[in-house]
Structure prediction request, 633 residues.
Amino acid sequence: MSRLSYKRLAGAPRLGVALRAVVAVFGGYALAAAATAALALWLPMARSDAVLTGTLLSFLIYTGAVLWAFSTRSVARAWVGILVPAALCAALAWLGGA
Amino acid sequence: MKGGLRQSMAWLHTWSGLLLGWLLVAIFITGTSAYFRDEISFWMAPELHQSVASEATPELAWATLGATAPDARAWDIILPHDRSPVAELRWQPDTPEAAEGGGRRRGERVEMDAGSGEILEPRASRGGDFLYRFHFELYGVPRIWARWLVCVATMMMLVAIVSGVITHKKIFKDFFTFRPGKGQRSWLDAHNATAVLALPFHFMITYSGLLIFMVMLMPWGMNAAYEEGWRGFFNDVFPRQEATATGGAPAAMVGAIRPLVNRAEATFGQPAQRISVSWPNRDNARIEISTGKEAAITDRRRGGNPTLVFDGRGDLLETKPGLYDDGASARIYNLMVNLHLARFADPATRWLFFLFGVVGSAMAVTGMLLWVSKRTQQLRGREPGFNLRLVNGLNMAAITGLMTAMAGYFIANRLLPADLAGRESWEIRVFFLTWLATLLHALVRPHRRGWIEQLAALALLWLAVPLVNLATTDSHLFSAIAWRHGALASFDLVCLLIAAGAGYALWRLAVHRPARKPARAARAARALPEGETAS
Prediction:
């Protein structure tokens, strides 16, 4: 798909909303899950404390991600702003688990 | 999105609110009733109303279990307390199935008159538990799906709360603004007021609702840090003693339990609440007597009560003062869960939570009405289309319909014969049939007349609850007041209040004419569930 047609598609209101909703619901969850796993492994406190702190924060992270997905100027920004931190957290969790 | 942060948040608030609004209204209303779950269950079992706690209650319970289930795996006696005047006796038969469940299965359960020791046989009813369970796992849907659905709605509610706050830049000014009798503006003001008034409550109830299901919703931290996942986490944070797997040789236990109860009460300075025995009448019997506690709200919910542990002969084995040194995160978790369940609450606090629940329900309800009101106003007098009528009809079924069905449930409790087979299911069937009837009615008449008819049904049925109670039991409003039984009397009074509230709404909608009648608004508001502009 060429750059131009992608832009036109993402600019269409309904598709834009759908794309934002997808990244909000699934990307947001992925970010919250990965961040929770990373916090559980990396927070400098007792293991159970780190796990629970991460889990307590997870729902706030998810909320923040949903708000982000619907408030950015472009759909691309919404996706990048959620998926890049999610990938970073997943990498951290993977490193911590190794 | 176009138009800046506030506009996009308003958009998000409107649509996430509408999509799961009906479910949230149902969750809020049934969840609010769950603050009085024990009291509702008690009201729905008039056969228990004569029970009064006495000094002899523990002894009576001890003797009853000794005669009924001498060779059980475990006994549990829940002594009468301020929310229930009966003694609850539970035991787990020593069967292979019970052994498989690690001794954690429910087992058998009876209620005992705390004064006479007689086993009571209340009419079969799910009582307040049905409404309580409905608020997080609905009914007749596979439990796991229902819980996920409710949690998705809860998550959307959290998003709606935060986006609602952002939408609202003049949050405090708006809170003091109320413009009654102005259709859409009034619904908006009421929605704002109920939302802001109880904002901390709304945030707490939503966030803690998610935390209660964190193992299902967000197990990834636990899975990452513990080999055994959430089980490992819980064993680490909330360690519990596993029951001994097998019973020993038969051996007599203490004949009188009262001295042990007295000792526990003297040790901790609190009344005893629960007597638990594992492997009664065996040589490895353990008798645990727990008392109440002056709990901090950040204390864990379970297992924290001061307890004396005895062996079967009554020799003290262990004193558990019930103090735990939880970390900061565990204290926050405990705080949130405790606030959600409000098990700690004394009657005044319980009423306060109930009122917050009512305000929360009102917030959800006014939000739904606002959605319809705004779009009706935009029609400027044209006939509403299919979508708007559908939303209006579903609103009606979700709001007045659910409330009417609840009244039907309570009336069924009094009118269905006590010996009806599957009686408790019939009560629930009456609930859903009433609800279905209101839904069909709402879809056929999704306009002002429809609201008038549903409000009339709502007022009549809630008025009927205390009247039917008066006709069919001895523990009606008058005797409840004479006995100074607050819970029973309050139940009937709340029914009357709901009937009065519905009656007032009916009057506003059907009869009341405002002094000023702006012609434009009057033309526009035909489908409004609010009388003053729809004249």
